[in-house]
Specification:
- With 289 residues, the protein is mainly α.
- It contains 15 helices and 4 strands.
- It has helices spanning 2-5, 13-40, 49-52, 58-62, 77-80, 95-101, 103-117, 128-132, 153-163, 170-173, 193-196, 202-206, 208-215, 221-240, 259-285, and strands at 9-11, 70-72, 84-86, 91-93.
- A hairpin with a 4-residue loop joins strand 3 and strand 4 (91-93).
- Helix 13 (208-215) packs antiparallel against helix 14 and helix 14 packs antiparallel against helix 15.
């Protein structure tokens, strides 16, 4: 344990301040339009999702943390937060204290990430989870009812009946309509999450953002932002392949009700799985046993 808690890098003020600024500038490109829409009372089904579905607030995403084991020269511990301590070499995170306080959640996240990484990726769902969320609902009943469905409710339901549903992700499954749940080949629960989550799943890979921010400040904020960036791209595919017609927002559909659309979806899904695997490995590297 002592070796794992030893400082791994000492950053001069010019270096860490440049990282700090770069992080804020990167995040501001996502936050500024979201906050402007919020002030106007507008909702965006793609761009606002990560700010409304997940609990991390914009100010938290913007806040920079260097990660465990990094010493910052010429820094003020009070500027960085309650978990930072000043020492002879500079300011560093009280890694041991944070890990002790969060031991249970860190262990839970590590186990989930490790279990997911150890499985083969599955690519046979074709995005039907989003269709199961509107299955046998009217236009007025669907979650994003400000936006039309591409097909009629009857034809949308027929696609689900034809393709079936193969969703392994509990937090997607729990939004299925009641008639859609029996159609799924699995019955995911929170308790079975470690046993079912697999690395091809769009939502499991989107959730790397959640696990990254829940591990902050143990992981560097650049890693949290990388996970946000991936989740944002995944959400775009998720909604392009959904039953909603978002062409007016600049999102042409991935028509998973056709063979060509399913092939397009799987190609993108595989690319996201590869990128997610690298992020998952970075998170696990930050969580020594």
């Amino acid at each position: 344990m002592t070796a794992a808690l030893a400082p791994t890098a000492v950053l001069d003020a010019a270096v860490w301040r440049a990282r700090h600024r770069a992080h804020e500038e990167r995040v501001d490109a996502w936050l500024t339009p979201h906050l402007a829409r919020r002030r106007r009372g507008e909702k965006h089904p793609v761009e606002d999702f990560l700010f409304t579905y997940y609990s991390y607030r914009p100010a938290q995403l913007r806040r920079w943390h260097p990660g465990a084991g990094v010493v910052l020269r010429d820094a003020d511990a009070a500027d960085l937060g309650r978990d930072y301590r000043a020492g002879a070499a500079g300011v560093t995170l009280d890694t041991e204290g944070v890990r002790a306080r969060r031991a249970e959640s860190v262990a839970w996240i590590r186990a989930l990430l490790s279990a997911t990484a150890g499985r083969s990726a599955q690519f046979g769902c074709f995005g039907m989870h989003e269709w199961a969320m509107v299955y046998r609902q009217t236009q007025a009943e669907v979650r994003h009812n400000a936006w039309p469905l591409r097909l009629s409710p009857e034809r949308t339901a027929a696609v689900v009946d034809e393709r079936g549903v193969r969703c392994s992700h509990f937090d997607a499954y729990r939004f299925f309509t009641a008639p859609a749940r029996p159609l799924n080949v699995l019955t995911p629960t929170r308790e079975s999450q470690h046993a079912l989550e697999q690395p091809g799943c769009l939502h499991a890979n989107m959730d790397l953002y959640k696990w990254a921010y829940k591990l902050s400040p143990l992981v560097p904020s650049e890693l949290v932002a990388d996970a946000f960036d991936l989740a944002r791209e995944i959400r775009t595919l998720d909604m392009r392949a959904s039953p909603y017609d978002l062409a007016a927002l600049g999102y042409p559909p991935v028509r998973v009700e056709t063979a060509e659309g399913r092939a397009e979806y799987v190609t993108a899904q595989r690319g996201f799985a590869e990128r997610a695997a690298a992020l998952r490995a970075r998170l696990l590297d930050a969580l020594p046993e």
